[in-house]
Amino acid sequence: MRTPFIEFLREHSRFVILSHVDPDGDAIGSALGLAWILRDAGKSAQVLLPGGTPELYAFLTGADDIGAVAADANLTDAAVIAVDATSPSRLGELASLLERGRPVANVDHHGDNARFGDVDLVDSSACATALILWEVAGDAGFRVSKAAAENLYAGVLTDTGRFSYTNTDQRTLQAAAELAGAGAEPFTIANAVYGTRTIASVRLLGRALETLDLREGGTVASIHVTQAMLRETGATQEDAEGFSSWPRSLAGVKVGIFLRETEDGMIKISFRSSEGVQIDGVAGRFGGGGHPSASGARISGSIEEAKQAVLQAVSEHLRSTV
Ligand SMILES: [Mn+2]
Fold it and tell me: Does the domain made of 199-321 have the CATH classification 3.10.20.30?
């Protein structure tokens, strides 16, 4: 399954690596981890993320060198690799880099990936795209430096919710152990991602938890964050990172929903579900997608309208499937 992608890596010597909007730890860790692996193999690799690097992940080795717009790309003889992105639309403005007859590879672990590459490596049984890339490096015999291992470890750590989601399995922990062996420092990375909350973020969380709304006999929970709440607490969008796991963490809750109003007036929705409850279909109804137990979408409208529409869709989904 990995062979065509390994051949793609061997065949080319210059790469532009892209990932998705609102980049998470797996998007950034996968892109940077792969870039370091390719550089260590004597190739050139440039990373571009739509909108640049979130401050939370600025500690990762190589993060200071990430481009933010298509115009930053040095495309001379470059092959393009998209990582962790379900479809070209997830690449935002960077999707324009796919439309110029350039060789494109697509590596992802989302089952609904649109297979938009010349080479597609999609493995939905992998907890993270970073895990796939770690295994690719092993198969291909590429060296994985400390910088590469740190980035790939960050991807695995964050996409498994610190090794706690249903996607955490023996393969996950095996890779994590091997990445630690290759130089990734579990405490340093976990502390940088989870142990450095701002006071504004804690105040924002307090406000968000006050919006807790339980439905369907306590099996569906939602919280939300508005732009006004950000202003009142002095918090930034990034300060709401990780809030999506709070509603689902309540005892008895099967589906947790986190809604946030973005700067451009859209509503970003995150769905989390407990084991055995597949919720990505609901995200799909709103034009989004993701994994069975963790998915998301963006819709327009007020936060109240969005919340009512989403809660109704989730209730219908639970009644029809459970
Ligand atoms: Mn991922």
Answer: no
Cα 83 to averaged position of ligand 1 atoms, centre (Å): 8
* Nearest one of 62, 72, 1 to 30, comparing CA atoms: 62
- Residue 135, token pair as written in the block: 């295994």
Q: Is the pLDDT at 322 greater than 80, yes or no?
A: no
User: Of all residues in the chain, what percent carry a pLDDT higher than 90?
Assistant: 90
Q: Are 184 and 62 in contact (CB under 8 A)?
A: no
Residues 214, 269: Cα–Cα separation, whole Å: 16
CB 62 within 8 A of CB 32: yes
Expressed in angstroms and rounded, the spacing between residue 292 Cα and the centre of ligand 1 is 13
pLDDT of residue 291: 87
Q: What is the CATH number of domain 3-194?
A: 3.90.1640.10
Asked if 47 and 31 touch (Cβ cutoff 8 Å), the reply is: yes
CB-based contact 314:220 (threshold 8 Å): yes
Parse the chain into domains and list their residue ranges.
Answer: 3-194, 199-321
Query: 217: CA distance to ligand 1 center in Å?
Result: 32
